[in-house]
Amino acid sequence: MRASQFLFATLKETPSDADIVSSQLMVRAGLIRKLASGLYVWLPMGLKVLQKVERIVREEMENIGAQEVLMPMTQPAELWQESGRFEDYGPELLRFTDRHNRDFVLGPTHEEVITDLARGELRSYKQLPVTFFQIQGKFRDEIRPRFGIMRAREFTMKDAYSFHVDQESLEVTYQQMYDAYTRIFQRLGLNFRAVLADTGSIGGSASHEFHVLAGSGEDAIAFSDGSDYAANVELAEAVCTDERAAPTQERQDVATPKIQTNEDLAKFLDIPLETTVKTLVVKGHRINEDGSEGEEQLVALVVRGDHTLNEVKAEKIAEVATPLTFATEEEMKAAGLKKGFIGVDLDIPVYVDRAAAAMSDFVSGANEYDMHTTGMNWERDAQITEVVDIRDVVEGDASPDGKGTLSIKRGIEVGHIFQLGDKYSKALNCTVMGEDGKPVTLMMGCYGIGVSRIIAAAIEQNHDDNGIIWAKTPDIKDSIAPFDIAIVPMKSKEDTVMQTAEALYEELKAKGLNVILDDRNERPGVKFADLELIGIPHRIVVSDRNLAEDKYEYVDRREGEKQLLSREEVLAKVS
Ligand code: ATP
Ligand code: MG
Ligand code: MG
Ligand code: MG
């Protein structure tokens, strides 16, 4: 590829609405552009990265015999009514009607569609086990889209579904998937952990999540130094005897609104100071390491938006706040609320349930707290105070299996595998003829990977002040950098510089390497800054001065040191 013919959409300034390092760098490096909240355009530079991740995922799926399909993103509501999820799924499911007044949803996941396919296509136990997968756009109307493509509303997922005559067969495929996921994240060069996950409302017997470790992760995962025990904290908490377990591992603070005064609140909501608005303010105390009570801080701010807050403002809050999802859509409707009920959770998601009781009272109006309804008075609102013990009690505790002590790290959920059992096959009556000639209801597994989220997670894990650093992959062919090598010819009166650069470019291309020739009419400083921002792993500069000595200037993005190398040495570095 020639850079003069390729869209370099790099930005010097950090976009004001990009909230963590990966989203800032992805926008600045020209990989993505925001279209609207939670919706992103993949620019040519970013799409290359996305397709490289897809390739590795696809290879590992095919490697375990999974067959690729492509299902529509638009799904008829009837299937969701059959499984019961049309009602159960909640507001993340985007429902809409077509011109004939038929109900549809935009697929957040595809259990219903694949089960419908299976009941139509699979006849006999002899066809089983079978696994289908797809790599496709999903839509989830996330209440708070944030962190760029990490928590988007439309995003790319690899989702796979397996069908079996019995639990034993399901377990075999589940283990193959577990191993395939492990290989995918290893090939990507990521620092990750597989952890036990809650099987929650779905039931089923086993579930694992795969987390990329990063301080900005939204999940807390606990692992033991004395055994293989690793779980996401929700689960570790459930099995720890100490129910106060509430880790407060530092995480990179993101867009936390600094609201101290009425003026701050009015400014934040973008409304005049005199506006009538119902707010519930929940404050708590940090507990210091020595057990003493620490600084008071804002825990949650709930704005009841059925008054003067219009939807736009509610949305503005949703953009910067972690919403509390304890109220269902029905509850909100019952309380006469539309969209404007949003909570702000500052940085300790785990103990939100404790504040939640007070807040759901507030929302339902069951308990009239001392609410301020005429103008905002921060001091008075602050009377509604919950003192919450947020002491970190999991860290250092013994684990649930009695071996070793637990440590807590932040993780980004990039994959999730699940033994579903017969939940969907039963609801949709998905059976085949069994060995004994009688119909058997199939057992199912489902397996997701956040293909687009992986990119943000990789950047969270590897970057510096100058930009992205793509992880070193065990095999250079698995690198997900948009280009692996950049050749930069310096301006010269002689043709030899350009000719040499062109020849090297052709040679590397012929070797199957992913190389870009930076022939843009830009100053070298601009080119170097762009290449560092985008994270191109290898940079080769061709100049008059060095050519006179038959040398090339070479820089490894991960090391940063300039080296003067012979042609052979350069070739050895990049292949
Ligand atoms: P999360 O806990 O982050 O909301 P999830 O548990 O709802 O994720 P799953 O239903 O397990 O997600 O979906 C499989 C994978 O899809 C997740 O492991 C994650 O990597 C990815 N994913 C889920 N939601 C999003 C999103 N809004 N944006 C990007 N990727 C996502
Ligand atoms: Mg989710
Ligand atoms: Mg999750
Ligand atoms: Mg999940």
UniProtKB/TrEMBL annotation:
UniProt xrefs under Pfam families: HGTP_anticodon (PF03129), tRNA-synt_2b (PF00587), tRNA_edit (PF04073)
Catalytic reactions of this protein: tRNA(Pro) + L-proline + ATP = L-prolyl-tRNA(Pro) + AMP + diphosphate
Name recorded for this polypeptide: Proline--tRNA ligase
GO CC terms, sorted: cytosol
Origin organism lineage: Bacteria, Pseudomonadati, Pseudomonadota, Gammaproteobacteria, Moraxellales
Protein's gene: proS
Domain Aminoacyl-transfer RNA synthetases class-II family profile: 38-474
Protein's UniProt keywords contain Membrane: no
Assembly description: Homodimer.
Function recorded in the entry: Catalyzes the attachment of proline to tRNA(Pro) in a two-step reaction: proline is first activated by ATP to form Pro-AMP and then transferred to the acceptor end of tRNA(Pro). As ProRS can inadvertently accommodate and process non-cognate amino acids such as alanine and cysteine, to avoid such errors it has two additional distinct editing activities against alanine. One activity is designated as 'pretransfer' editing and involves the tRNA(Pro)-independent hydrolysis of activated Ala-AMP.
Localization of this protein: Cytoplasm
EC code: 6.1.1.15
GO molecular-function term, one example from the UniProt record: proline-tRNA ligase activity
Keyword Nucleotide-binding: yes
Classification via PANTHER family: MITOCHONDRIAL RIBOSOME PROTEIN L39/PROLYL-TRNA LIGASE FAMILY MEMBER, PROLINE--TRNA LIGASE
InterPro entries cross-referenced by the UniProt entry: aa-tRNA-synt_IIb (IPR002314), aa-tRNA-synth_II (IPR006195), aa-tRNA-synth_II/BPL/LPL (IPR045864), Anticodon-bd (IPR004154), Anticodon-bd_dom_sf (IPR036621), Pro-tRNA-ligase_IIa (IPR002316), Pro-tRNA-synth_IIa_bac-type (IPR004500), Pro-tRNA-Synthase_IIa_type1 (IPR023717)
GO BP term, pick one: prolyl-tRNA aminoacylation
Record family assignment: Belongs to the class-II aminoacyl-tRNA synthetase family. ProS type 1 subfamily.
Organism: Psychrobacter piechaudii
Main location as per UniProt: cytoplasm
